[in-house]
Design goal:
Elements lengths: L2 H8 L12 E6 L12 H13 L2 E6 L5 E7 L2 E7 L2 H9 L9 E5 L6 H16 L4 E4 L11 E4 L3 E3 L7 H9 L8 E4 L4 H14 L5 E5 L2 E4 L2 E12 L8 E13 L4
Parallel strand pairs: 1-2, 5-6
Antiparallel strand pairs: 1-3, 2-6, 3-4, 5-7, 7-8, 8-9, 10-11, 11-12, 12-13
Length: 259
């Protein structure tokens, strides 16, 4: 059984599964991509600088061949296109006020996981047909919820999309609405805070600002969210044997602040 099919049928929880990053370098690179892009010479060369800046790297099929740098900083999302990776990395370190425009990154990294290669391209095409700017990208994380879609300037992560879902998804995305069937979390939050943010957003109808976390208790918008861990046997990736996995759910939401 494919990993995405297993987790859809099980009803695995999406919130708390988004990759964590606040800086992103998207490097245009011809396909096919190896399963592990970090083994590419160009990625190895950029590795020390990426580590210093705390930036995540994705490869993409970019028609203009340009690199992109995107950063979330104190609630502001900056971004731009560059002729080289070095210029893009310099942008991440700088203070340019160039704001990131609408962009969707859809994982289509079939050599990493079969679900991504099969399910990603149709979603990318459906978004393009509706006029959205889309790049097919390498594996950002969490192919069990394939196809993974990263959204900017929201800096969000979504999963379990189908081409039929795309028109309503795009409309709700542009209106800033919560999408519980697909939302995996905000990239700029840690995984437990992602779960809490999604829970408060669904409960109140307004996207909250997460103020802090103490273990399994998260403060968001004057509310304290109590989280509960759930252990289960699951398939992390296509071809893997079942193994112990962990997700978290919202056990309760109460007025208050963390002490």
């Amino acid at each position: 059984m494919r990993c995405s099919q297993f987790h859809r049928e099980r009803g695995s929880l999406l919130p708390g599964s988004a990759p964590e990053c606040r800086r992103l370098l998207v490097l245009s690179h011809p396909r096919p991509w190896p399963a592990r892009v970090e083994k590419l010479a160009v990625v190895e060369m950029l590795g020390p600088e990426l580590k210093r800046l705390g930036a995540k790297l994705l490869l993409a099929h970019a028609p203009d061949g340009r690199a992109r740098a995107i950063e979330w900083r104190d609630g502001v999302v900056r971004g731009d296109r560059f002729a080289s990776a070095e210029e893009a990395l310099a942008f991440l370190e700088g203070t340019s006020s160039r704001m990131q425009e609408e962009l969707f990154l859809v994982c289509c990294h079939g050599s990493r996981d079969a679900c991504c290669g099969q399910l990603g391209p149709p979603v990318a095409r459906a978004l393009e047909l509706l006029g959205a700017e889309v790049l097919e990208c390498s594996h950002p994380g969490g192919h069990r919820f394939a196809p993974t879609t990263l959204t900017f300037p929201e800096f969000g992560c979504y999963g379990n999309l189908t081409p039929d879902d795309v028109p309503a998804f795009l409309e709700r995305q542009r209106e800033g609405m919560f999408q519980p069937a697909h939302y995996r979390g905000a990239l700029y939050l840690d995984k437990l805070c992602q779960v809490a943010e999604a829970g408060v957003w669904e409960e109140t109808g307004s996207r909250p600002r997460v103020a802090g976390r103490d273990g399994l208790r998260v403060e968001a918008q004057g509310l304290v969210v109590q989280l509960e861990p759930i252990e289960f046997e699951g398939i992390p990736s296509c071809g893997d044997e079942p193994e112990a996995m962990l997700e978290h759910r919202v056990a309760g939401i109460f007025p208050g602040v963390l002490q």
